[in-house]
Amino acid sequence: MPVQLTIPYETLLELVEQLPEAEQEALIERLTRRRQPHLTAEEWIQQFHAAILSVEVNEEPSIRREDWYGDDGR
């Protein structure tokens, strides 16, 4: 059974600021996940396609390893 406490907002902020950075990030991730609506597959695909940038590639990338890593592959 979850505990129900009434904590003033300012007190909550002070407590969260005392958490280590990793725990603050975990808390933010958890709260963010709770707010995200459950998307259908079609809605997810629409959002995915909306996030894709339509930017042309200036030049064709080289297929030679030496051009990418500056070595002869040994």
Radius of gyration: 23 Å
- From the spread of the alpha carbons, the general shape counts as elongated
Strand content: under 5%
Portion of residues in helices?
A: 55-70%
Distance between the termini: 61 Å
Report on the architecture of this protein:
With 74 residues, the protein is mostly helical. It has a domain at 9-58. Helices cover 55% and strands 0% of the residues. It has helices at 9-18, 21-35, 41-51, 65-69. The model has no long low-confidence stretch (mean pLDDT 84).
Secondary structure blueprint with pairings:
Layout: H1 9-18, H2 21-35, H3 41-51, H4 65-69
Provide a short characterization of the protein structure.
The protein is mainly alpha-helical and 74 residues long. The chain contains 4 helices and no strands.
Give keywords:
74 residues, mainly alpha, 4 helices
